[in-house]
Amino acid sequence: MGWRQGLQQRARQGIPALLEVDALLQAHGVLAALPGARIAPGLVRFQLAAITCEGLQRRGLDGLREARHGRGALAGKVPRYRPWKAGAAALSEIGIEGLPADWPEHAAVFGCSSIDQRHWLLLLPERAQLWLGWTG
C-alpha cells in the first residue's frame, strides 16, 4: 500500500461514519491552505460523496447532529466531536479567520472540533469538500 492510500485509510478513521467520502484530494504537512488557521501538523482534504452533499444541502446543520464520533481510532482513541456549527461560528470553532479566496463567498460551511481540540472537521457541501485537521 502506498503512502497516499495509508494516509487516506488512517485519516478516514477520524471522520464520522455519516459523512461518506469518495477520494483523498490533498494532504499537507502544515495548515497553509486555510487563511488564519492555527498551525497544525496535519491537514487532509477529501471529496464528499454525492449522497452526503445532497443530504447536507437538504438538511443543513440538522443533518450533522449525529455525526459526532469518528469511525475508528486516531492516535490511540476514537475522536469525539463537539456539536457542529455553521458559518462564522464554525470557522471560529476551529480557529480559522476566513475562507480561502477561491471558495464561494456565501457558501454553506460547517465545522466542529474534537472534545480534546486535537482534531477538527470543516465541510463545504457546495464544493463537495471535507477537511480534517489535527494537532498531534
Quick summary:
With 136 residues, the chain is of the alpha+beta class. The chain is 20% helix and 24% strand.
What does this structure look like?
There is one protein chain. The chain has 136 residues and is α+β, with helices and mostly antiparallel strands. It is 20% helix and 24% strand. The chain has 3 helices and 6 strands. It has helices at residues 3-12, 50-59, 87-93; strands at 21-28, 42-48, 85-86, 110-113, 119-124, 129-134. A 6-stranded antiparallel β-sheet has the order 1-2-6-5-4-3. It is globular, with a radius of gyration of 13 Å. It starts with a helix and ends with a strand. 35% of the residues are buried. The model has no long low-confidence stretch (mean pLDDT 77).
Radius of gyration from the CA trace?
Answer: 13 Å
Q: Which stretches are poorly predicted, pLDDT < 50 over at least 5 residues?
A: none
What is the rounded distance between the termini?
Answer: 23 Å
The fraction of residues assigned to DSSP E strands is 15-25%
On the 0-100 scale, what is the average pLDDT? 77
| Number of E-state strands | 6
Question: What overall geometry do the principal axes of the alpha carbons give?
Answer: globular
Along the chain, the helix and strand elements come as HEEHEHEEE
Q: Class by helix and strand content? A: alpha+beta
Give the helix proportion (percent range): 10-25%
Identify the strand order in the major beta sheet.
Answer: 1-2-6-5-4-3
- Number of helical segments with 4 or more residues: 3
Largest sheet: 6 strands, antiparallel
